[in-house]
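Protein 1 of 2
SEQ + STRUCT:
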Amino acid sequence: RQLIDQIKNSPSSISLEKLSPELAEFVLFCMEKDPSKRPKLEDVLQHPFLKGHTPGRDELRDMILIQSHIG
């Protein structure tokens, strides 16, 4: 919930230092401020970070929730 609130209110304030470089790049990819440039869920699911990772059910739910709040 905190991540979704930060995305909605001020995406640039999320601290990426504790994330792996791959995850940080993925988060930035998903958090495009300009709605016309923001990736759709299909694009997010094709991102290399997810292609090399099999998300669990909770992770998929969270990604869908994030997309529904920003897309």
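Protein 2 of 2
SEQ + STRUCT:
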Amino acid sequence: GTHSDIHARKEQREAQRRQADLLDSVLANIPIGVSIATAAGELEYVNDFMVRTLGWSAEELRRPETWAEVY
């Protein structure tokens, strides 16, 4: 009934949270630069390795004018 539906949804949300936490951990610790961009080319995510490697802050890397300097 309703109790089992609520319990199943809670378990599903918890499993999704664990998967998101795992992905966040992998992306944060992988020894390669990773960025995630929208279809329009706007960066939504830049990992710490990419920040350290390129020498710009994550905020700077999200600005199109930063990439204009690179290319």
